[in-house]
Batch of 2 targets.
Target 1
Amino acid sequence: MGKTRRKTGTTTPRKSRSPRPVRKLKFATDWTYSAAPESTDHVRLESRYGLFIDGKFSEPRSGRYFATISPSTEKKIADVADASTADVGRAVKAARRAFDGTWSKMKPSERGKYIFRIARIIQERAREFAVVESMDGGKPIRESRDVDIPLAAGHFFYYAGWADKLPYAFPCRDPKPVGVAGQIIPWNFPLLMAAWKIAPALATGNTVVLKPAETTPLTALKLAEVIQEADLPPGVVNIITGAGETGAALVNHPDVDKIAFTGSTEVGKIIQKAIAGSKKKFTLELGGKAANIVFEDAAIDQAVEGIVNGIFFNQGHVCCAGSRLFVQESVADDVVRRLKDRMETLIVGDPLDKNTDIGAINSKPQLEKIREYIQIGQDEGAEIYQSSCPLPAKGYWCRPTLFTKASQSHRIVQEEIFGPVLAVQTFRTVEEVIEKANNTPYGLSGGVWTDKGAKIFKITGKLRAGVVWANTFNMFDPSSPFGGYKESGVGREGGLHGLLPYVNLS
Ligand code: NAP
Ligand code: MG
């Protein structure tokens, strides 16, 4: 059975500076792609996973397990242990023992070797990790294979290199590890977020208790296998699965020295309140509502591709997704038309199919939330456009969705939707768009598309966002710090900056 992708081509003046209607030539062709599913034969999965504590898998004290399903088939993949407060206590105890007994005392160059080993094993098992990530979380295999897994290995490689060079990272200071780090991560980049958290913690001599998200625990549990294979001393990394209560128990445990959290602003605020007055260090990487700004002098086709990459790929499940599009008035009609044409070519479907552009929404509640916002957008008076692609019968799916005639006061412009939903607004001047882009409680990321370097510097200096991309979007590198302003969080992860939250300096 083939899939149909309608390819449309258009010709328009490359840089149209006036609002006059552009001449539109359309070449419509019907392309049929045969299904190209990634093989799952090589993937080894247990039917039931325990908690990874003190170097081995063990039963949860509660005896409780929950199912992790594939959002594209709604079928159970495995049962996963539900860690109780007592299990959190066991994991923290193991991490403390490993910190005091081995890891903090180990020669930094030896620590580095273990981290390198983790990186290399992830690379060796990259295909398996990519398939499991797409099965458990719903993201297209192209994303997990080309982005998530290589970047996860890249983070371990990068921080392995720092392990014996910390005096160069903090000249004239004496960096000491903080102790036991409690780390809580979301479902949108499960393995990558685990790598962001674990790699800098280990490089600086800390031990770890990590809690993955309830809907995507499998690659973290596979990472536990890698940690066994790399022969890390028991207790240095502990991985415990569970729901929000497990995360809360980790946050509130008195023997945890640092909390590293990535997730929603709502839970970030709960965590900040819970640890207020304690000596726990913390970093919070929270929500976002990025502005993607297109000027009339931009390379429009590249910008359209960047907009699609910024909000539709990965189902919009990206904290830094370019969910607010600002287009200069003179090119707005042209950009929106090309965007709609491009949206029509996107394939929504089986995450394991290499043709797929947009995979499954991560969970049923998340799909319901996105649908609710799509309704809110229409009720608020914005004009909706959705691509006409077919959707599979089973699973959680959302067509790429565009809202024009959106305004600053609309909830679809102000609130994080975390789905493939884009709200478009227009602007006339640089000052106006800076004002509009900054008018949000968030400040995680942004993008600007223009031919003029001076304009890029002017805009990037004034956008209150942790990362601003110029003539590209959603690009990551382990050596580059990431983090937010305002309600998008506190602290930085990645790069040299990512070492700081894991050390005490004297
Ligand atoms: P979430 O609901 O805040 O959950 C994040 C993690 O916290 C999950 O492991 C969750 O467990 C756990 N958790 C829930 N309640 C908790 C509590 N009271 N105490 C401690 N932990 C608790 O966020 P999400 O829906 O999984 O992820 C989406 C959000 O993450 C979006 O807002 C997105 O913008 C943000 N995000 C930010 C970044 C960044 O770098 N700034 C990166 C990625 C994602 P359960 O899964 O079991 O609920
Ligand atoms: Mg799942």
Target 2
Amino acid sequence: MNSKPRGRQFFFNPGPTHIPDRVLDAMHRPTIDFLSDEFKVVLADTHASLKRALKTQQHVLLHAANGHGAWEAALCNVFREGDKLLMLESGYFSFHWTKMAKDLGLEVELLAADWRTGVSPDRFAERLAQDTAHEIKGVLLVHNETATGHVQPLPKIRAAIDDAKHPAMLLVDTISSFGSMEFDFDKCGVDVAVGGSQKGLMMVAGMSFSGISERAMAASREHHMKRNYFDWQQMLLVEPQRFPGTSPVHLIYGLHEALKIIEEESLDAVIARHGRLAGAVRAVVEHWGGGETNRSVMINDDGVSGPITQIQLMMHEAERHSDSVTAILVPDGHDSNAMRKIAVSRYNLSLGQGLGPLAGKAFRIGHLGDLNEPMLLGALATTEMALKASGIPYHTGGINAAIDALSD
Ligand code: PLP
């Protein structure tokens, strides 16, 4: 007897995400010459559409690499070995980009923060004001920290850099916010934005891109670290082919279709839909926990500072809530991974795990990409079943809170 759960898997990890059939179909085609006129048109169109989505008149380069590749490209093109960077701590991914920068020979100061609140813009401004010698060459942040469901207040960070008249480059990881949440590259004065294909862009993993300001592009011409494959200047030289080596034709066809889907709905409508669905997720989690939260409990890389007594949202403040992923803490004495295992093995619902010190203590619901109300309601109701089956205490009837939130 086949014990595999029936039906299509409900995939609610915060990336990769559901891939629309239209995107899968666009990739299902015979090989064509990547130097053909036919493909050049598709590539140019994809590039133009990505620039519109990023809201930039400046540079955008595509990489046949996952987000880690674009992370590395950003660092090795803009900085010199030994440069000092300031990273705003937000969780697992802020740590990993920091580690990569250190491994490449950069010096990184982590502006430490409780992961439930994040670095305040005032504290960031204070730190910049201390740097009168302008030793800090770059400010790095993860716009949407996928591990905690935390959004950085990007306009406030930009304003603090401007107020301090500080020349540091602003590098932003938009991997889990791009195509789901407001992001305006030019308006926000971003120097490098790093994005990936497998989240709001509803594509397979394996592609990433860099939004690059004129200033960052000039820096990469004038000075840089050792680099070869990720040399932006070399990439510009191979225009309009855009890729060093063979172009990933099928990935581009998929990306082209995904961007078309976003433009048909309109980026504004996509962002509004993500906001609406995210509000429903938060309403359900608050219902499950009875609206209580252990506010004095802090969380960082060292772990959780005190008891978690009921289900609750990871993030405290509404303005820091992500519209693409929600991290949910489970009460002490319960294992979020055991619950996730039940969800996938019995009900075919895949949820995200808690990362780093949150392993077993939290789970994540990804609510980004190709998603609508019935899919989300199904996933939330099924999560409630998995809570019940795993013995995690919760207030029943969370789905009604979601229905109310979605009907507002
Ligand atoms: N940054 C963030 C915020 C992410 O969520 C991820 C992956 O989930 C990455 C970076 C790394 O991207 P990739 O797995 O495509 O290398």
